[in-house]
Structure formats: C-alpha cells, structure tokens
Amino acid sequence: MSFLVTGSAGHLGEALVRTLRGLGREVVGVDLLESAFTTHVGSIGERAFVRRCMRGVKIVFHVATLHKPHVVTHSAQDFVDTNISGTLNLLEEAVAAGVEAFVFTSTTSVFGDSMIPSAGAKAVWVTEDVPLAPKNIYGVTKAAAEELCRLFHRNSRLPCLVLRTSRFFPEEDDDREMRAAYSPENLKANEFLYRRVDIEDAVSAHLAAAERAREIGFGRYIISATTPFRAEDLEKLRVDATAVVARRVAGYESEYARRGWKMLAGIDRVYVNQRAREELGWQPRYDFAYIIERLRRGEDLWSPLARLVGSKGYHAEAFAEGPYPVE
C-alpha cells in the first residue's frame, strides 16, 4: 500500500515520512522544496503534477499548507491557491485514483475569535463544537478546505477525516510578551496543559485516522495533548492557573522551582481531545504530567521524533516584531 504525504519537507510531513518509512511503507513525499523526505518536487496547485503523484496511492496525508507565519509574506490569493485550490486538486485526483482514505491536517486556528473570552469570562473549553471564527486568511482558507473534504465525502464517498492540530513546532513564540516573560522551554512545557501536542503524538493521530477513515467516513478532531483540566476549572483557570495546575498535577512545582521556571498566571482556553481519543482510538503519550516525569529524569521536553525533525524556521528574513508579526 502506497502513502502520499504532502508538505514532506515540513515539520509534520517529515515526521510522517520518517515514521512510515520506518514501518516499511512505500511513501510518495511531495513538497515545493527538495529534502531527504521529498520524492516529488512541485506544487499541489498544479493539477497534472498532483495526478502524477497520486498514481498507485491508497492513503493521502495532506499536510502541505501556507500557514500563519506566511500571512506576513504571502498574499491572500497565495493562500487561496495553496490551501483551497491545492486541496481541491488533491481531493479530485484522490477520487479518480480510488484512494481509500484522505486525512487532512487542519488547525485549531479555525476557531479564531471564538477562543478569546471576553473580560471577566471564564476560559473557553474548546471542543469540535465551538463555532468557527477565523481571524486571518490562514484560518479562513483552512476552514474552507475542511468543507471541501466534507463535500467530497458527501458527493463522492471519499473517506475524509480532518485533524485540527494544536502547536507542535519548536520555534520561538510569536507573542513578544510571552517571549519576554518565559524561557522557550518553560513556555512550551506550560502549553502542554492546554494548547500543544508533541509531533510524535500528532503522527500517531494521523495513522489512527487513516485506520478509521473508512469506518467513520467523515469527521473533525482536535489533536492536542490530553489536558488535566476539567470543565469546572475554567473560571479559576482564567484568574489563577497556578492554583488549578497544583491541584490537577501534584508535585510539578518542585521541578519548576529547580529549573527556575514559572507557571502561567492565567489560561484563556483549553483544547479538548476527547473525541479523537474515543472515536479514533488515539492514545497520546506526551501530556503535562509525562513532561514533568521526563524532566525529573534529566530528559528534555521533546520526543525522539521531535528531536530528529528539529526546527525548520519560517522565513529567511528577520522581523523586528518577532518571528512572524501576525495576529
């Protein structure tokens, strides 16, 4: 069985190709950039190229995208061409080739403004049922691509599952205040509580989705580390996250104190992966408690796969406002 992975030179694309090759699978890696994990260099916006790449493929992992950091360097039309038209090309050619499962990598950015609580409100419990309210062209085009996947399942019976991934990149944070207040590892450890997933777990979610796609048909799933929080914590989380974390993850404070790290004062959202765990049979390993265990053993935050993939960067140029000055 042959797999197609778009975006094979990127973080998740490389991780998927590495994993599939390790399992002895035949993989077609597609990207605009040459890499050790790219077998076909070209654009998913070119229909003839997509058709060539799709020959003999049974499972598609569509990871390639223009994403949030590119908003500052690319036009809205570029986003439409790649994220919408490119996805359409892949879906149409997947149907023509008799593909058995199509897994689309989306983003929690589709929720946008719905994840920002008003002043005095409790933190937002983010499930798949939260209304979409994207706040930039990236989120808008990913939401549109999700709907294309739904349409192709409806009209062509193509099994399509959408995975809304949270942060898995190791690059520095885009928020200047966060960068000033926390070391990079401290901040990312905090994020495993509510808005981050290790790339090893992101890969296992994609493999689980491919296994269940034909049975499920169509579905959308949040892919993020399992949070220790509960819905009843949301009011307190917004104003005193430190107290809530101490109650839900006993003993983390000593490891943080040893490293000179600090907890967030408040948390405004919590990504909930329950549906993915229940319906996909997904079993993520890297939650906050597991991260603390690793740190106590003298290990770092990252899985072996995350360390292999490493940092990719987003732009050749530097910006005074940070890695990518985009809301």
Q: Could you give a short description of this structure?
A:
With 327 residues, the chain is α/β, with parallel strands linked by helices. It is built from 13 helices and nine strands.
What does this 3D model show about the protein?
With 327 residues, this protein is an alpha/beta fold. It has a domain at 2-172 and 198-225 and 270-284 and 304-309: NAD(P)-binding Rossmann-like Domain (Rossmann fold). It has 13 helices and nine strands. It has a seven-stranded parallel sheet, with helices on both faces. A two-stranded parallel ribbon has the order 6-9.
List the helices and strands and how they pair.
Elements: E1 2-6, H1 11-22, E2 26-31, E3 40-41, H2 47-53, E4 57-62, H3 76-97, E5 101-107, E6 124-126, H4 137-156, E7 160-165, H5 176-181, H6 184-191, H7 199-216, E8 218-223, H8 234-239, H9 241-248, H10 252-259, E9 269-271, H11 274-280, H12 288-296, H13 304-309
Parallel strand pairs: 1-2, 1-4, 2-3, 4-5, 5-7, 6-9, 7-8
Could you tell me the CATH topology label of the domain at 2-172 and 198-225 and 270-284 and 304-309.
Answer: Rossmann fold
**Major beta sheet summary:** 7 strands, parallel
The percent range for helix content is: 40-55%
Q: Judging by the overall fold, what is the CATH architecture of the domain at 2-172 and 198-225 and 270-284 and 304-309?
A: 3-Layer(aba) Sandwich
Distance between the first and last residues' Cα: 41 Å
Give the DSSP E fraction (strand runs of 2 or more residues).
Answer: 5-15%
**Apparent shape:** globular
Unreliable stretches, pLDDT < 50, 5 or more residues? none
- Radius of gyration equals 19 Å
What is the count of β-strands? 9
Per CATH, the superfamily of the domain at 2-172 and 198-225 and 270-284 and 304-309 is NAD(P)-binding Rossmann-like Domain
Instruction: Report strand order across the widest sheet.
Output: 3-2-1-4-5-7-8
Give the helix/strand class: alpha/beta
Order of helices and strands: EHEEHEHEEHEHHHEHHHEHHH
The total count of helices amounts to: 13
